[in-house]
Amino acid sequence: MPPTNAEATPGTPTGTTDRAVPTATAPATGNPYRRLFALPGARAFTAGNLIARLPSGMFGVSAVVMIAGARGSYALAGAVTATGLAATAVTAPWIARLVDRHGQARIAVPATVCAVLGSLALVLCVHYDAPDWTLFAAYAATATTPNTGGMSRARWAHLLKGDPEALHTANSFEQAADELCYMLGPVLAAFLCGTVFPEAGTLTGAALLLTGILLFAAQRSTEPPPRPLSSRAKAPLRAPGMPAQLAVCLAMGAVFGAMEVVTVAFADAQGHRSVAGVALGLQAAGSCVAGLVFGLLRPAGPADRRLRWCVAAMTVLMTLPLLAAALTGSLLLLSGALLVAGTATAPTMVTNMTLVQQRTPEGRLNEGMTLAVTGLLGGIGCGSAAGGWAVEHLSPTAAYGVPVTAAAVALLISLVRRTG
């Protein structure tokens, strides 16, 4: 059985290194976030990573607006972005495996350059009215974008080895940062594409990604040492507990994908489609605040038990948007329900990533966390499709049952894992 106590983190690199490891023995009193960023180099790599991570919420919206505006087809825009998502699902674990084996700076920089060139190629293809197939090829090239959030979490795991409480705080901060980027990214992209020029969102995102990765990679003192792959190293997918963990990721991704599509459809049915972004932003805001608060708490008990409670809370809270839509039909009350429902997201994701770190074989932490993100992306795609089907064949209100069902499936998987 894999370790379940908070102290066990087999995914954390061990052994001798050729770099000085900053100490993580700050005083045990005071604000845990202040202690976290008192570590040498922590602020520098975090700043670079946040700059690089913001475009993750920009590229999809920017591509849709740019392509749909130039070609007059949302179907084409959606197909191009879906192709990029599929390419990412295939490419991301491979990039992460190279990062583990050869080091973050050595792999992340050239991979980012390739992704940026893909973004520039997409802009040129759209601007010069190239054939449609070139859009698919160009956007697929952006799949080499490294998992910036995973690399940041790997650094925290390296720096905070042996300090599970501080690592819990770091994971909570990273989840809050994810929510903030996915909340601000689409807003920034829509503003740039709508007020500057249609290609501005993609170009700005590419510039931020490259700048952030260069700043992040330059912080070599905090970088985990590369771990050459041993012939006996177990693949993350074969590690005990990991398949079930990735299945939970898939189900949780379906929650997010379905909620986004259904909320847009519900707002559109009421003639307020533009307000859907605000409602979804409130859900992300609730998760962001909950993540920061969760980081202030001391984790109690095994992480797998905490995950079951977190997923159970998510399942219950996801019924609030369904009830608000069904009983009131008010977009305002729905937005409030989404804000409350979002508070379960960050604690669940933080605990899930803690388990992924614990269950990932030594030396393959980036790969393990990228597989988790890939599972989430796959779930988002499935949830979007299921939510869209429910909207078309049932109603936007009834379709809010899809994220509730997906959350219940995640809970069932976590409970079966306990008895399995």
From TrEMBL:
Residues of the signal peptide: none
Keywords, alphabetical: Membrane, Transmembrane, Transmembrane helix
This protein's record includes keyword Metal-binding: no
Source organism (scientific name): Streptomyces spiralis
Record's compositionally biased regions (Low complexity): 1-17
Region described as Disordered: 1-28
Gene3D superfamilies per the UniProt record, alphabetical: MFS general substrate transporter like domains
Keyword Ubl conjugation: no
Molecular functions (GO terms): transmembrane transporter activity
Protein's name in the database: Transporter
Spans traversing the lipid bilayer: 50-68, 74-95, 107-130, 239-266, 278-297, 309-327, 333-356, 368-391, 397-416
